Amino acid sequence: MNSIISQIEETFATQTGRIYRAVIDRTELLLIEKALERAHGNQLIAAKLLGLNRNTLRSKIKKLHIETQRFKT
């Protein structure tokens, strides 16, 4: 949790005018990566964990440039 707070503080210092979008994108990235980790890269399971539609999750993965192969075991 402190990691997120320190990242928000850093964003305030470096991203003036883009703070909201930067924080939302970073938070979304962390949540999606954690869900993919728990689902061993299975996007359908990760989407269910997050309460998202699979296509919505895929869209977010693409937007955030998340490499899904690293979560597959």
Task: Tell me what the structure shows.
The chain is mostly helical and 73 residues long. The protein has helices at residues 2-14, 19-38, 43-50, 54-63. Helix 3 (43-50) crosses helix 4. It is elongated and about 35 Å long.
Give descriptors for this structure:
73 residues; 4 helices; mainly alpha; single chain
Q: Which descriptor suits the 3D outline?
A: elongated
Structural class: mainly alpha
Number of helices: 4
User: Whole-Å distance between the termini?
Assistant: 27 Å
Beta-sheet strand percentage? under 5%
Average pLDDT reading:
89
- Rg from C-alpha positions? 13 Å
Helix-strand string: HHHH
Low-confidence stretches: none
**Helix content bin:** 55-70%
Number of strands: 0
**Biggest sheet details:** none
Short description:
Helices cover 70% and strands 0% of the residues.
SSE diagram, text form:
Layout: H1 2-14, H2 19-38, H3 43-50, H4 54-63
